[in-house]
Amino acid sequence: MSSREEIISKLRGAPEGLPSVDEVRAMLAANPDLKCVVCYARISFDGRMKDAHGIEDQHREMTDNARQFGWLVVRRYTDNDKSASDERIVRDDFEQLVKDLAAGQTPEGYPIHGVMAVNDDRLYRRPGDWERYLKAFTAHEGRVYHDSNGLQDLYAEGFEIKGLVGVAMSLAETRKKQRRARNSHRNRAIRGQSVAAWRPFGWDDDKVSLRLDEAEAIRQAVKDVVAGASISEITRRWKEAGFITSRGNPFQYQTVKQVLLNPRLCGYRQIKGELVRDGDDQPVIGEWEPIITPKEWFAVTATIRERGQGTGLPRGGLVHKYLFTGILRCGNVLEDGTVCNNKMIGIKANDWLKYRHAYMCKKTVDGGCNRTYKRGDKTDKYVEALVIAKLEQQAASKARDLPEWGKEDQLERAIRSRKELERRWQEGEGDEAIDDETFFRNLPAIEERIKRLRAEQAEYLAKKAAAESAEEDIAASWETRTLSQKRELIKSALHAVIAVPGGKGQKAFDVTLLRPVWRSSE
Fold it and tell me: Are strands 328-330 and 345-348 parallel, antiparallel or unpaired?
């Protein structure tokens, strides 16, 4: 079976088996009634099969009609998967058609005596496109045009106005369909029904029941991101596990981020960045099985959005092999009385030693003093214990000191005000009733207040969820964390650890020579 690209390629340009330009001109000389026509096919959405069957069917129909009239198709123009009503979309073949009509011939040199389309809305749906097409078409006399309405005389008096009326009706129908689609989408969302066009990652084809391996991968990713893992790490892990998106593509940074930010994970729905709510202003719970709790979703979204100053870009940086590389600083006092303070590096220990790695100050040629050396395993164990204790203390304090939001009453009053305004507009009688102008003049301010308060509430809930998740047993989960996760947590607790040299010769490991410099609580 031919690929979509191969089919589209065959449906563009001069058809196979077409006589040469000179042969066609000879045919025209012998038969002045012969018409050389071009065919234009377009479809807005190629469907899930992505097999170009829509434009293939259009060209087949136009070729059959041309044969009945005795016309010769000299070129085919094709815009697949492109809307004609969206001004942001450039239809390359339509633009080429307009250019060729104005020139009077195809790029190969065949004359153009007419245009065929299955329907006029395949060619144009906006007034500007109609006007450009008509001007190019009528730039030469005697051309024919055929669509589902039969032969049309585009030169007839008043046809330009007729065409504009058709465009206006087409636009109105397009907008009506869009409105119906939006309303249907929202109504289904309010009923808690799944409206996903594709199977969401984490769920089965029914979009309701879970696909267990994907759901578990999402749960673990949420926990790891809240604990400090980067989205790049999650992306790499999912790729190594062989996961692909529901559309069959490899996961990228942005697609993983979209999965984790989707409120569907906890059973909620979101339209244009806002959670869908019921009549009591509570988030609508979907009919599908949730993967995580709302508390976990608030926590992971807060974590992701706080990173990179909200840019959403992957964070770079070096990948270190040893836990305290760059965190340990040399505390050796130099001859001039100053402290070396150079960042120490992790190194592989000699094979005859009982430990596998160590930390040392860089050589003098690299800016260090090469005078401080610390055993790696005992350094890691001691400083890790200090950091875990500090993090648990901070987590307890953070959860305890987080103030209540305290604006629930303001939000409730704003919602009541909007409902009362709507009631007086729709059902009010006498002095209580309000007209359309009063309703629409007062509504925006109330809705803006509700939107602002909901945003503040969401921010508070995210902070609360993050604080509560931080209260988990950090020591118990420490060993399950990746090296980069541990380093992120360590750097959140302290600025550095000053390592003071122990002097010449082999000496017992002395923890007093490791001095942590803690970060302040602000």
Answer: unpaired
